[in-house]
Description:
By secondary structure, this protein is α+β, with helices and mostly antiparallel strands. Helices cover 33% and strands 13% of the residues. It contains five helices and five strands; from the N terminus they run ββαβαββααα. Strand 1 (7-10) and strand 2 form a beta hairpin.
Amino acid sequence: MTSFEPVAVEHGVARGMGQDSGAPRTPSTSGPASGLSSPSPRRDRRGRGLRGPLMPPGLPGARSRNEAFSDHLAAAVSRLAEVCGPAVEQARFRMTMVPEDLESRLELVRAWGAELVDDPTGSMRRDAQGTAVITIHRRPLEARCPAPSLLPDLVYGAVVEQWAELTGLAPEAVDPDFHW
Length: 180
């Protein structure tokens, strides 16, 4: 008896749709006739669930927000290195979701109001070896961004602002094209 299983062609190799391994199925080891068929872990109990990712990996929607933000941060740091030179390579840049001292900032906002508390888009500190560590906070920048297409510019603005604080210069002196 033959098994009627849907087949997908991926990169020139025909594979069963519910199969996880790269090897094609052979009639002697799978199917209802042999009794060795096992359900794929990516399907629900009745075999009607998802068969793969919702978005193909090549499309921009398949990337997570963290991955996209880290790409924006890497582009901003390379743009800053073009403007400021090799001195940027002496600092470390990292990203976090929210500031580490978020609770204390919220207490300050409750006590003094949001106008008197600085915006937590980034922070700068020195580690034990004396290396400058510039941290850019993802969620405050995303909340501040009016459109997703403007997020790379906001990330660059936060990087320039933190670099200006580190070097003791005005942000406009670091990058004349700086617009915050």
